[in-house]
Amino acid sequence: xxxxxxxxxxxxxxxxxxxxxxxxxxxxxxxxxxxxxxxxxxxxxxxxxxxxxxxxxxxxxxxxxxxxxxxxxxxxxxxxxxxxxxxxxxxxxxxxxxxxxxxxxxxxxxxxxxxxxxxxxxxxxxxxxxxxxxxxxxxxxxxxxxxxxxxxxxxxxxxxxxxxxxxxxxxxxxxxxxxxxxxxxxxxxxxxxxxxxxxxxxxxxxxxxxxxxxxxxxxxxxxxxxxxxxxxxxxxxxxxxxxxxxxxxxxxxxxxxxxxxxxxxxxxxxxxxxxxxxxxxxxxxxxxxxxxxxxxxxxxxxxxxxxxxxxxxxxxxxxxxxxxxxxxxxxxxxxxxxxxxxxxxxxxxxxxxxxxxxxxxxxxxxxxxxxxxxxxxxxxxxxxxxxxxxxxxxxxxxxxxxxxxxxxxxxxxxxxxxxxxxxxx
Amino acid sequence: xxxxxxxxxxxxxxxxxxxxxxxxxxxxxxxxxxxxxxxxxxxxxxxxxxxxxxxxx
Lengths: 425, 57
What we know:
By secondary structure, chain A is an all-alpha fold.
């Protein structure tokens, strides 16, 4: 019983720490928005969180338990349906609720990854639908396939992705890419000749603090990736590990990513995004990397990801307001591939050992799993006029169209109805 | 590249990548130190260049 209670306590606090990720996304995205859109960006995050909790209860937990073998429903799914005895207060079950809670926060994190990219032009209703599908269905199907002791990506190909770089970060990043293609850029982002206009958020310091909160929350997230057994720890693939292993490599990864991004950009926003790049780059092998190797993998990721974001912007005209596709999508790609390069040969409990080929194949599965639903669903929403705010609302500011209160009531915000609107404002 | 120093988990202790290859560990450690030093050098160069620019030189 003591083991069960200790496990409950551990995951309780991991879940609480993960709330910091959402405080972080809230601050970071409101800061990255122009003042006229600050509250609409924040409401979007709050709405995603509030919808994700019940929807993960309704379907998400079932999907995780039901589909580790692919698209056929396994028996374990029956114990995760929302009307069974395990899914409510039950003195004989100390595990279901606390694991559901931790996974619910993983789900909300996945949906929040998308939310920063689409700020300042998406309809909150359309975003809520996308967030529900991504957070309670799409990523968790990937988690069932590749972040589960019996997931087919591990049992068939030996996938190793301890920190969820694939099912969380890659799936969210590529889902977001699909959405951005249909959503289009903010008004004024590009000139007629294709050149790019800078659109700066209204509060960079708030964004930086938000990003640091996300980094703090990741200690809860990564703690929640480990299984407490009473006298030791196991990875989600049932291989032995220690919290010390995660401590070494999470911190080295954060530092490597920050310095890599700083080296190539000098931009504090990218430096803090680099901390996320660092965590994601090292995430698949947090349990096995030599710490200086984790540092170098993350440093390399930090040097490359800002360039990829620039490429998406200038070459492909993808207006990703916070660079989430590059940070999470391509950061996840690099993390999985790097694990194949640097951690091949480790035995799995189920399935073959870690291999480069297995990591690359799994990475491609996650890319398709993320991109297709994001593209198709956002296309359908666009057809029904539910994806993008009206041009008038975008120019006036989404706060005016979506929110009944003002972010800065004692400040004069030029966008609010004084006729001084300009497209790139 | 097989980087695992173990073939089974039973009895494993220091199981991190290349734990049985001290030369490679030294190389990765030196590479990480070099990345830090290079970043500091590039900071100095960046600051010097910015100062020169602001001073109109």
